[in-house]
Amino acid sequence: MNFDLTGEQKKIRELAKGFAARVIAPRAEELERSGEYPYDIMAQMASLGIMGIPFPKEYGGGGGDWVSMHLCMEEIARADVSLAALLDVTTSVVANEIYAFGTEEQKQKWLIPLAQGKEIGAFGLTEPDAGSDTAALKTTAVLKGDEWIINGSKQFITNIGLDHASIIIITAKTRVGEEGKTTVSTLIVPKDAPGFTLGRRYEKMAFHSSATHEVFFDDCRVTKDHLLGDIHKGLAQHLSVLQTGRISVAAITTGLAQACLDEALAYTRQRHLSPQSLLKFETIPFKLADIAMMIELSRTIYLKAAWLKDQGRDYTLEAHFAKLFASETATRIASDVLNMYGPFGCLEKYPVSRYFKAAKLFEIVEGTSEMQRLVIARELLG
Amino acid sequence: MDFNLSEEQIDIQKAAREFARGEFDPDEALDLDRNGQFPLRIWKRACHLGFIGIHFPNQYGGQDLGLLENILVVEAFCSRHSGVGMALGLSDFGSEVILRFGNEYQKRRYLPLIAKGESASSLAYMEKGQTDGSSFVSTVAIRNGEGYLINGEKIFVVNATLSGPMIVFCQWNKTKSDDQVALIVEKNGNGPVPSMMGGQIGMRMVPMVSLTYNDIKVPQGNLIGEEGEGRSQFVNFLNEMRIEAAAMGVGIAQGAFDLALTHAKQRVQFDQPIASFEAIRNKLADMVTRLEMARLLTYKAAWDFDRNGGDVLLNCMAKMVSAETAFEVADDAIQIFGGYGYMVENQIEHFYRDARMVNVFGELGQTERLLIADRMIGNI
Predict the structure, then answer these.
(1) How would you classify the pairing of strands B268-269 and B122-124?
(2) Is residue A86 part of a domain?
(3) Residue A280 has pLDDT above 80, yes or no
(4) Contacts of residue A155 in chain B, CB cutoff 8 Å?
(5) Contacts of A368 in chain B (CB under 8 A)
(6) Is B353 an 8 Å CB contact of chain A?
(7) Any bridge partners for residue A147, and if so which?
(8) ipTM above 0.85, yes or no
(9) Per the CB < 8 Å rule, is B156 touching A203?
(10) Pick from A268-282, B36-50, B359-373: least confident
(11) In a domain, A2, yes or no
(12) Are residues A63 and A189 in the same domain?
């Protein structure tokens, strides 16, 4: 056993922590209020090499590991969860999917700009009738000659509205020719493909600076080489990269919970005469103790899942544990800290109000808590 | 024992539900919530039909009914739309201080206007350095010729931007925390200038402001009760307010539950309505059970208030349980809706945000927990 981070991992975390505190945190409230996208911050994140940490240098990455990547996500989430979610989607899911299943040409063409942070990726799994039931998708793609003809729609697509979002990886029911057998595959669809349209932007409870849209495919055409990986294994491939996304959600919610604790400590110190006077009571100190304990557990389980991934070992169960535990924990912590603030917590100028509204989303995205429990139970029962 | 509502109470409940169904326009509510605007049109209609100030005596424009009837209305409104419901429920905020402790002139002057929807009342207690209205205040009132002079600052004041009376609690004897005075300040040109406190996560149709009182003059006739009685009047008001807040919680939980139940029956995943999955069934069962518990406690507290004048233990329990229930049920409702629940357009998420306000507005659930403990434990 060894719970120490390597020197490299520590260095990367410190870098992200400093960047988040210096550049992101001072802007977080304004970004949430205005709903504007911080392109300048994204560019700085790219130039620091954060977007590509776990990918080899020849693909524009940093040659680092997934532990480092997730330490970064935690630190960035501590300042702003929208930006951390950008990393989750682009790096852990989209770039990861191309790296894992793409051809050399696909990696050269699409992975490199994503890893360098020059472009942003989105993925489209959810449809109006296909939420938790991912296999109920209706979007179709038919291979005619040299082209895939795609028809359908996807909803709740994170980041696709950003100017430099270049591609969306979608799952679709595919057929080779009109008579062919239907299977589920993943396709890379550039945003400028003919027949692709960006639908309305959603208004969400929080994450206002994250550009979430619906998207439509009307006889949308991409060439044959946009098929990603095995034509028959699209859903399985996509769900396998979502496992990495689950570690990311856990890292992000750990950062969110840590931000809540940071606030709670600062607030209680400011409100009460001294820590000594506060310690004469138990309500708040005990709550703080619980919060610190839960955060440490969240952090430990996401790091274990990321470490297993780096070792090339199975991390399915750990990814589900991490996602479920850390997201539910963060929601509870945000709620508890808001209570400590009393009515002040309900004012949007206090960060805890943002954390409170944001936390809830993580119990839903990348598999609801119910789906996590279902999969864990299936693993246990065989 | 008799757990039935009277025929009159059932009629009131029905009327309030029908009114909310007919008058709370979803698009209008969405805009009001987004822009932090008071639902003026709906409020006027509700007043016109006698829903506001239902607990005032007839001679002051009310229906001569009790707190239980009042909270049946508040619950029905909040279950249809928590934002609109809370705004209407709070439109007569603080009027009970005038109703219970004001003199005949004050009651005649203010209460009929509040019931008619020509005035919205407000109450200023909280200050910086407090997290709830449980301690002494630094806003002071001193005698000034024939009247009083107020100096200080109040925060989290509701309805201050609407016309109507504002009841301001000031310290009278600076050395005794319970020696306070309640004065009516009219919100006209000579009153304190409100300053918005900023965006709120919930209860957005009731914008909260801070007010700075710089030598604000109040005539002698605006003193409620006697000098030094302010604190006990406020404590008494809180007893009534907790029950009304509890009813808001019950309404919010009911509204969120209704939407979640409908969605669970309609939403098909894995070839069946999600309501057929045990995970969802368990959740719905827990939601409705918690809701029933909160409602029973709230109605009991209101019944006791009308019959015996109210009991701190009961109303603290009711408020604490209802606030927590509202939040838990709204949380579960979003979870049942999944991604749809998080999108503003589907009008579920406001229940989650508004529910949170029940627990922290006016008084913290944690304060109530400690009051319950005080009552149980006594001196040791």
Answers:
(1) unpaired
(2) yes
(3) no
(4) 339
(5) 335, 338
(6) yes
(7) A144, A223
(8) yes
(9) no
(10) A268-282
(11) no
(12) no
**Of how many residues is chain A composed?**
382
Size of interface A-B (CB pairs under 8 A): 106
Task: Report the pLDDT averaged over residues B103-128.
Answer: 96
CA distance A60 to chain B (A): 33
Residue B288 has which token pair? 């409705």
CB contact under 8 A, B338 and A132: yes
Which residues of chain A are within 8 Å of residue B132 when distances are taken between CB atoms?
Answer: 342-343
Q: Are residues A23 and A78 in the same domain?
A: yes
Kindly determine whether residue B353 and residue A205, on different chains, have CB atoms separated by under 8 Å: yes
- The 3-state DSSP class for residue B143 equals strand
Per-residue pLDDT band for A275 (boundaries 50, 70, 90) equals low
Looking at the structure, do residues A141 and A268 belong to the same domain, yes or no?
no
Residue B72 Cα, gap to closest chain A Cα (Å): 26
Hey, which residues 102-131 in chain A have their CB within 8 Å of chain B? 126, 129, 131
| Residue of chain A minimizing CA distance to B362 | A343
Distances in whole angstroms, Cα of residue B355 to Cα of each of A19, A45, B169: 36, 37, 27
Q: What is the CATH number of the domain that holds A305?
A: 1.20.140.10
Q: How far is CA A29 from CA A26, A87, A208, A350, B62, in A?
A: 7, 19, 10, 8, 45
pLDDT tens digits along A129-164: 999 999 899 999 999 999 999 999 999 999 999 999
Q: Looking at the structure, do residues A244 and A228 belong to the same domain, yes or no?
A: no
Domain B231-377 in CATH 3.30.300.30? The answer is no
Verify that A229 and A144 share a domain, yes or no.
Answer: yes
Give the range of the structural domain holding residue A210, as residue numbers without chain letter.
123-233
Whether A1 is in a domain gets the answer no
pLDDT band at A364 (very low <50, low <70, confident <90, very high): very high
- DSSP states along B193-244: EEEE---BSS-TTS--EEEEEEEEEEEGGGB-SSTBBHHHHHHHHHHHHHHH
Distance from CA of B65 to the nearest CA of A (A): 31
Q: What is the residue whose two structure tokens read 């119910």?
A: A370
| Active site members of A | 366
Helix B230-266 to helix B67-80 angle (10° resolution) is: 40
> Does the reported pTM lie above 0.80?
yes
| A138 reaches B (C-beta below 8 A) | no
Find which of A127, A134, A156, A205 to mutate to test the B interface (most B CBs within 10 Å of its CB).
A205
If we measure between CA atoms, which residue out of B116, B143, B141 comes closest to residue B61?
A: B116
CATH second-level architecture of B122-228? Beta Barrel (2.40)
CB contact under 8 A, B343 and A357: no
Q: A120, A141, A157 — which closes off a domain? A: A120
One domain, residues A112 and A173: no
Question: Which of A178, A203, A233 is a domain's end point?
Answer: A233
